[in-house]
Amino acid sequence: MKNKMGSLVYAFLMLFVVVIFTNRFDNDGWFLLNSGRYVEQFGIPHVEPFTIHQNFHFVMHQWLFDLGLWKLYKLGGLKAMIAYNWIMAALFLFVYIRLVKLKVGQISGAVRFFLLLWLLLMSMGYLFQRPQTMSGLIFLLEICLLEKSSKRDRMPRFLVPVFFLLSALLINLHGAMWPMFTVFLLPYACEALAGPKLPFGRWELTWQAKDFLLLLVAVVAGGFCNPYGTEAMTYAFHSYGYHEINQVVSEMHPLCLDFGTPFMVMIFILLFICTVCYARHSLPLRQQLLALGTGFMALQANRSSLLFLLAGLFPLAEILANHKFRKTAGSAYAWSRARRMVALMVLAAIAGAVALFQQTKVPEGRGALFFGSFILLALMTLWSLWRLWKTHNQKETLKENIRMFFALVVMMLMIPFSVAWFHPPREDVILSKSVEVIKQDAGSNPICLWIGYNDGDYAEFKGIPCYMDARAEVFKPKLNHQKDVMEEYCSLLWGKLDYRDFVTRYPFTHFLTTDLDPLYVNLKNDPRFELLWDSEEDEEIQEKATEVEKKKKVRVYKWRH
What we know:
mainly alpha
């Protein structure tokens, strides 16, 4: 009964984390869906098809992921996108638990907490509709296979065709990350080939150089199985390292610059804990290199924190599992000691219930479910408390009863909150209205739209050619072979380019501006432009918009004729 109750609570917490923190549609999903729709209708493109720029050379390095995501969207819309998040969360957790079990064997309480924290960080930062979910899963499978095979004297031959298949999938699902497949092989090759010659670090791998050469050949051969050839394989070398992109795209910021965000604070703390724990315990050389390498990459760019979570953390589970947590003699669960903890739990339950009703806004139509779930669980919690008091002198069941009471308190507070908080994702009502205004004003006439980096994806999904979207690297000359649009865009944002000169460079018909760019104010004061719509003046939209959506102030302009 004790183990079943603990497993039930643990499963509920994991489910709660996934449902709450992956319930959103990522902004990049619009250009991914737009790309998948294009591939389905016209095939794989080699010329950029969505913007106002003509004949830009183009590599859709994640074309297979885009196509699959679009087909899923056609089946269930945005609800299917949330289902994708949940499915990927389950797959990641399944493979990661298998990897951790290779290190620790039996999952202890400390390791369970570690897995829950890992799932929380993954759900908060990465389990959304992006190709990195596929590439991350492939990297996790790669590491799991290598770790499972590391105890063998020779490399198992089945790894060669498996790595070929994984490499072929990776290059078509997320080509920009394909080089990392080889990078993750390097720590294992270093341990096997250089480990015996080094005076520090444990080494276990005894594979020979030809084993790694075979794997490398399989990976490279799989990489060629894509419609763009070496362009997709080398995409990463042409799409990173640009000053403008690093400034505009928050994911490219160094981790230390975003230390104020809760997610990055947790990543930073984990890096520190790992540094301390790894320094005190002898780990195989390959795992030290994985942790150091991915940790360094996480410090260089936020987006690389995913690699640290996948490849740098799992050795910590072994350290936690082998750590002997100190227990005070004679501190068994006697009521004289436990009653203070129970009293604090009761007070916490009351305070939590008060906060739940004061801070939670119940959506229309969910009142019965919200209050019904709370009342049911509150009655169960009171029953558990009464049972705990009735049997408080029975030391053999006291610990179990306290855990049950705690579990019910957690569910009493979390389930009603999740009922109120959880809602199917929707299109941004302000951005949707903006695009609707532009299309209504244009009628059957062609549209040439100026729009910023963050919002172009949605307008293009709605069929409007745009100046800019979130595919930042597409607008650099190393990839489009023509023009540095990203540098031009950043010059406008940073005041280096006069807007009066800029607006005449392209045949713009409309401008969708936000308070984050200078055109938001400049065009209102320029008699050549007509204000079509202002989000702050639309009371109907303000009522429909969420608090997050209201933070975006939008104005739509057009040229006066």
